[in-house]
Amino acid sequence: MAAKKILFIVGDFVEDYEIMVPFQMLMMIGHSCDAICPDKKAGDAVATAIHDFEGHQTYSEKPGHRFTLNADFDSVDPQSYDALVLPGGRAPEYLRLNVRVLEIVRHFSDAKKPIAAICHGPQILAAAGVLDGRSCSCYPAVSLEVVQSNGTYVEPSTGFDNAHTDNHLVTAPAWPAHPAWMRQFLEVLGTRIQP
Q: What is the pLDDT, as a whole number, of residue 141?
């Protein structure tokens, strides 16, 4: 397996599981992962939030851990990366307003490099204008943004445990989908894990 270099774009109140788990999983199998955030550099941290599904009309939110960034936003070169991951949480609602974030996302989309987005992460894809004609899963509250950006919303199954692949784009509704989301992302990356 050839190791890939994977970029994560995060911000304060990124969903805890949606940054911690895929970041660690991808490194565990040998890929190199860098996490960046606008206005921050390597060694800085972002606050995370834990979103849970407890029977309310929407998710609940609790304080998470601090996640330490390991790359500088201002100097990142998206051309040097093989793939992109966009975790969810509250961060995407303001990250999508950052022009440089949108430029980075468009680079990966235009180059047809693998992109994985989960939960509210597709808000950034919609803002970048890369969902036209694409099918995309996301947290249901984001579905309107997918449709308004000329994408096709893929509704989650019971328990939010499914993922969806459309060519180089792998999306999922929320962290319960991690096994399916990462499995499909690894397939798109060309990563084979022997049983």
A: 95
**Confidence grade of residue 194 (pLDDT, cut at 50, 70, 90):** confident
Kindly list the distances between the CA atom of residue 145 and the CA atoms of 105, 139, 194, in Å, as whole numbers in the listed order: 16, 11, 38
Catalytic residue among 119, 164, 168, 178, which? 119
3-state secondary structure 81-134: CCEEEECCECHHHHHCCCHHHHHHHHHHHHCCCCEEEECCCHHHHHHHCCCCCC
3-state secondary structure of 47: strand
Q: What are 14's strand-pairing partners?
A: 48, 89
CATH superfamily of 5-189: Class I glutamine amidotransferase (GATase) domain (3.40.50.880)
| Lookup: tokens for 81 | 């990366």
Query: Catalytic pick from 120, 164, 168, 178?
Result: 120
Is the confidence at residue 78, as pLDDT, over 90?
yes
Active site residue 178: no
Residue 136 appears among annotated catalytic residues: no
- Interval 3-55: pLDDT, tens: 999 999 999 999 999 999 999 999 999 999 999 999 999 999 999 999 988 89
**Rg from Cα positions in the chain:** 15
